[in-house]
Amino acid sequence: MKILVVNCGSSSIKYQLVEMPEEKLLAKGLLERIGETSSQLTQQIDGGKRTVECVIADHEAGLELIVKTLLADEHRPIDDMSEIAAVGHRVVHGAEAFVESVRIDDEVIQAIESVQDLAPLHNPPNLTGIRAAMKLLPEVPHVAVFDTAFHQTMPDYAYRYALPHELYSDHRIRRYGFHGTSHRYVVDKAAKVLGKRPDQVNVITCHLGNGCSMAAVRAGQSVDTTMGLTPLEGLVMGTRCGDIDPAITFFLARQGGLELDQIDTLYNKKSGLLGVSGSSNDMRDIAGKAEHGDKRARLAMDIFAYRIRKYIGAYMAALGHTDAVVFAGGIGENSVVCRKLICEGLTELGIEVDPARNENPAASRGFFSTDASPVKLIVILTNEEIMIARDTVTVAAG
Q: 106, 147, 170, 264: which one is catalytic?
């Protein structure tokens, strides 16, 4: 069966068409600049690339163009819309309402709407995409897959903040965590590489890209994660600051004269690797500058690696026993130097890097630890779309 996986942003739609259960990618694409004077759709099928320049007013028109382009390609993976058996939708925030993926109906849509104040930049466009897709393909099942769902197994002492109880009970302020679909895929894949079932492994998963998060996973279930109420908490990211002293906010307001919206922008869009380096939020650029003697770029890398290293130690303590530390995401999968920096000095914790394997983990089934290392180090290419497709098949069949 063919599953259309949809990820809607405020002005974009990412999509993949996947043949299940073979998990074969038939097509993927990105529609950008929806609602602007000029939009662009880029689609890849069988290694061929197709670009469509157009004007797309809204997400409904965008999805119509996507299906039309799938049908128009000379190597088209479908001959008719009816071949799409189900649609899987990425939804960023499910709060405590959703602990797993669900088939979308009016009640689910209302529940997603009710928590959109927790993800005002993400849930509204996710809902826009859901409504547009359900109008375009009304006869097929639509499934919502939540970034937060995987972390709903965290114990209360891990997800609660030390704030007055009313802030949790009345305003739902707690740690939710994100990137859950990626973490879940990585855990499943790591377990297979280790020759075990997911419920037999304790692993620390590191999703490192422009957005970064880690999860402590015991017996296949998330028991802690670095992101919190929002994706701002935790690791240093491309433009996000991660963990800071909360009093910095008051200091900036009182001493710096900044408004709350300015501080929000500062923390989310001007900090992290960009803020420290002063030049880029892209680790590839920063690593290149550091190699050529740029001290601020090197400092950005050191802060980035140190924060992750601290969380590895903390999560090893939280788990009690750790089988592996797993690296995924653009940086985790591709940056040899970052993996080396992160794992330096962890020999006493049972983590030993094999330099040759780190240069090419794929040659060793993803492993880049030494044979003697009690805690294995693994690189896994994450695939959130396949995870969404799997859930869509399961939920639609149920």
A: 147
